[in-house]
Amino acid sequence: MTIPKVLIPMADYGHDPTETAVPYTAFKKAGFEVQFATETGRAPECDKKMLQGVTQKLLGATKSVVDVYNQMSKTPEFQKPLSWTSSDFSLDAYNLVFLPGGHEKGVRQLIDSPVIQKHLSSYFPATIKPSSKTVAAVCHGVMVLSETKGPDGKSVIHECVTTALPARFEQVAFWGTRAFLGDYYKTYGAGSDDVEKSVRKQLDDSKTQYKNSLSMSPFVVLDEKYNYVSARFPPDAQLLAEKIIELVKSTIS
Q: How far is the C-alpha of 218 from the C-alpha of 249, rounded, in Å?
């Protein structure tokens, strides 16, 4: 029996703990082998505002998520990630590349990385069905893909059906917390494009390809041509993990 191999690239700091720990925990429970990667092999940290203090209680991770995050953060794979800038780093051996989100400005280290973009520009086209390779992303993680360009200069997801963080959600969070958190909820600063707009701009036809839901119920989108799964924000994390596991298992059986 083939054991699926998963890679979770992360910034040194700033990813959302729910979008990281919930899928990680589900992958491990499903028997997947999981590795992390950061730019230089430094152990990553998720956004502390989502894990502790008043911001955690009002806006952040639930107690159960904090518990599974704490468990994940003590594992050898989290403490000693791979370095994506290492000369021998490659995505080729992985069945799944999972891109968590997070609005803290530190995640720009991953979104803007030319090295990660180079690796994904080769890996993502290999997810065309039938394939044993899958890519999944949630929230700002979708921007890693939308900003990754292929040889034709187009985003690697230019023809995919996708979702991402809805602009309405991002705007409500930004304006609702601006008085005490400043532009915390705008990853590229006040006045920058919302995640939804950034992703839509990279699609061939955003009216038909971008799938949106403003419901609080979990919402996940699967592309038909590629083994590509996307979701919006933390409340989607458990369903997203379940759909990813189902898809990955179907591709290697």
A: 21
Q: Which whole-number Å values give the CA distances from 219 to 45, 119, 138, 172, 231, in the listed order?
A: 26, 28, 11, 19, 6
Whether pLDDT at 58 is above 90: no
Q: Smallest Cα–Cα separation from 224: which of 164, 133, 159, 171?
A: 159
Q: Which domain holds residue 222?
A: 5-252
Q: What is the total count of domains within the chain?
A: 1
Q: For residue 212, give the CATH number of its domain.
A: 3.40.50.880
d(Cα 60, Cα 213) in Å, to the nearest integer? 21
Span 160-199, pLDDT tens digits: 999 999 999 999 999 999 999 999 999 999 999 999 999 9
Give the tokens for residue 93: 């051996």
Q: Average pLDDT of the chain?
A: 96
The partner residues of 228 in beta bridges, in order of sequence, read 135
* CA–CA separation, 223 and 178 (whole Å): 35
- Give the C-alpha separation, 52 to 55, whole Å: 7
Closest C-alpha among 229, 219, 41 to residue 133:
229
Q: Report d(CA 245, CA 31) in Å as an integer.
A: 10
Which pLDDT score, from 0 to 100, does residue 119 have? Answer: 98
Question: pTM score, two decimals?
Answer: 0.97
